Amino acid sequence: MIKGKVVIITGASSGIGEATARLLARKGAKVVLGARREDKLKSIAEEIGKEGGQAVYQVLDVTRQSDNDDIVTFAKTSFGGVDAIFLNAGLMPSSPVSALKTDEWHKMVDVNIKGVLNGVAAVLPTFIEQKSGHLIATSSVAGLKAYPNSAVYGGTKWFLRDFMEVLRMESAMEGTNIRTATIYPAAINTELLDTITDKQVSEAMHGLYAKFGISPDRIADVVAFALDLPEDTTVNEFTVGPANQPW
Ligand code: NDP
Q: Half-sphere exposure of residue 40, counting CA atoms within 13 Å on the CB side?
């Protein structure tokens, strides 16, 4: 059941996070939006409210542990608890390794890996105590296979596959009933390509997305499906992409 669930969404200011926030709110969830761009969060939350949904927002930089802790507290004070977190914030400045864009490598590690760890660390004590909770993360098809120009981005997403699976196994072993779902999207039309600074890679990716890209609403549907599953069931992996993309 989605109705009434309190769901924190990181990276809720655009793309997949925004689409998911809007859909879950329409289905009766109480959504807590986090990202860095406050103007975007504010207008999305206001629009959700106008449509009769319940949404609050808080500025969040996932690379800061304190911001992650604060948004969990904010969810509890706003809506009385936390049932799920969608660990979705991420960036993809793809480039060949030989370009040595080391600042971008580190940024991807900070947001795509450490940002997720910070979110998990913030919410897990609550989930353990209440013996329930749902952790949903956005990996990528680049977390399942190797792609040129995606050595570091793909690495951050491969990390999620291992981490989320071990988390699921340990929770089952520890009897805390925490569920996980890791989503592996292919080409989804969002602002993600804006983070690519390598001209050639950017052009190639824009071409690919122009040909194949589908709406982030499709990923929102998957998140909603995962959240809707009965408490005794976990579907822990979803690979989702355009039907005509041979990813
Ligand atoms: P967008 O660029 O539209 O969304 C990325 C979101 O992450 C934004 O809301 C951005 O908000 C947020 N974000 C980035 N850095 C931080 C930070 N330090 N702290 C908090 N929030 C941050 O792209 P998508 O919707 O596509 O990306 C969502 C996820 O989906 C990412 O993890 C991405 O890797 C993954 N993905 C996307 C695919 C695609 O084809 N689009 C395919 C596979 C995976 P703000 O700038 O306001 O902080």
A: 18
